[in-house]
UniProtKB/TrEMBL annotation:
InterPro entries (UniProt xref): Chr_Tranpt_l_chain, Chromate_transpt
Keyword check for Repeat: no
Transmembrane segments: 83-106, 118-138, 150-181, 201-219, 240-262, 268-288, 295-320, 332-350, 381-396
Pfam families: Chromate_transp
Alphabetical keyword list: Cell membrane, Membrane, Transmembrane, Transmembrane helix
Membrane topology designation: Multi-pass membrane protein
Protein name: Chromate transporter
Similarity remark: Belongs to the chromate ion transporter (CHR) (TC 2.A.51) family.
UniProt-annotated location(s): Cell membrane
Length: 397
């Protein structure tokens, strides 16, 4: 009987790995598109969980900081085959883009291509992509004047005081404002769901998440270790991202560009290249780590930036029913999401716009790419290829 259970469990893990890897190779279009791919594959085709449980899982991932689509994928793996299933699901969905971006980083370093025309084109792609993300997020996350004001304050604060600590402070202040302004926000009627994680395991995961968040900076100061500093910077960035993968851009930029660990040209080129690969945007960290410290740096960066997402989704699953029915918690999250819009607009101006749009012809190319993405609804990889070709042509003018 035990052998049968082991075989069944092993087959489940292989199936999760196969399906998640296929999604990791084909899921273009960002986190919202990923959730659509997941729904089609896991819910409609394979019926691994009910529509209700999937909706609950998506809501939880939107509630937590971190990469929403990756957290949903982890949660599906957990509900299918336990914690190991979550790990396997994550590996399958994430590894293809990690490998692609690490190879890109190595080629960029090998051929010293940071000043090539196509790299400039990729930087302009980043302008179009982030502008498109801002439009969608502003519409959804700042629908009323109160949240528009929170976004404006976040924009002004992060432009005037450009540091990672400012962004943390802005997020905390926005949570407080959201709590005060929306504490009477009506809680929706929700039905309960069952998630196969014990509260003991969940508490350990949450404890580890906060322990690392507060202990890593201390260990970094005491040891002076480059690797601890690198792990801490990626871990902190992964811990504080509300609103999707694009929001990790300003956190990573503040963590690595001013310190000289990576120059702005290489940073934006990698961000543009990230749009051309399937899978989660957080795999941008694999590119950054590889540029800084080769393939080992890429692996360390990937583990560090995704670890908070893992710990949070495992830690929050058993408590989700209580959290989502609390109007005060909902109000704080509404304030944070509004601040995210302001932070992203700030990053759109600096460093993206200031280091990519140097002439009217650059803006013209950005407008074309934005139109392709936002109005013609072309696949992101076509937009990236067009941007790279456009950058080469601009260099010939």
């Amino acid at each position: 009987m035990n052998q049968q259970n082991e075989k069944r469990g092993f087959r489940s893990l292989l199936e999760i790995l196969f399906v998640s890897t296929r999604l990791g190779l084909t899921s273009f279009g960002g986190p919202i598109a990923h959730l659509g791919y997941f729904h089609e594959e896991y819910i409609r085709r394979r019926k691994w969980m009910s529509e209700k449980n999937y909706a609950d899982l998506v809501a939880l991932a939107q509630f937590l900081p971190g990469p929403a689509s990756s957290q949903v994928g982890i949660g599906i793996g957990v509900m299918r085959a336990g914690v190991v299933g979550g790990i396997v699901s994550f590996i399958g969905f994430t590894l293809p883009s990690v490998i692609a971006l690490m190879i890109f980083a190595m080629l960029l370093h090998e051929f010293d291509a940071t000043n090539a025309g196509w790299i400039h084109g990729l930087k302009i792609v980043a302008v179009a992509v982030v502008a498109h993300a801002i439009m969608g997020m502003a519409k959804n996350l700042t629908p009323d004047n109160k949240r528009k004001k929170i976004a404006l304050l976040a924009l002004i604060g992060t432009l005037i005081w450009q540091s990672a600590m400012t962004q943390i402070g802005v997020i905390l202040i926005a949570a407080l404002l959201g709590f005060m302004l929306y504490k009477r926000h009506d809680a929706e009627q929700e039905t309960s769901s069952h998630f196969p994680i014990s509260k003991k395991v969940a508490t350990i995961c949450l404890g580890l998440f906060f322990t690392l968040l507060f202990a890593l900076p201390v260990i970094r100061e005491i040891t002076g270790s480059y690797w601890v500093a690198m792990f801490d910077s990626f871990y902190r960035s992964g811990s504080l991202v509300f609103g999707g993968g694009h929001v990790v851009l300003p956190l990573l930029e503040q963590a690595f560009v001013p310190t000289g660990w990576i120059d702005e040209e290489a940073f934006l080129a990698g961000y543009g290249a990230t749009q051309a690969v399937p899978g989660p945007l957080f795999t941008f960290a694999a590119y950054l780590g590889t540029v800084m410290n080769g393939w080992l740096g890429g692996l360390v960066a990937t583990v560090a930036i995704f670890l908070p997402a893992f710990l949070l989704i495992l830690g929050a699953l058993p408590f989700w029913d209580q959290l989502r029915s609390n109007p005060n918690i909902k109000g704080a999250i509404m304030g944070i999401n509004a601040a995210v819009v302001g932070i992203l607009i700030s990053a759109f101006y600096f460093p993206i716009w200031t280091s990519s749009i140097a002439a009217p012809i650059d803006f013209a190319l950005a407008a074309v790419l934005f139109t392709m993405l936002a109005y013609w609804k072309l696949p992101p990889w076509i937009v990236v290829v067009t941007g790279a070709i456009g950058g080469v042509l601009l260099g010939l003018i």
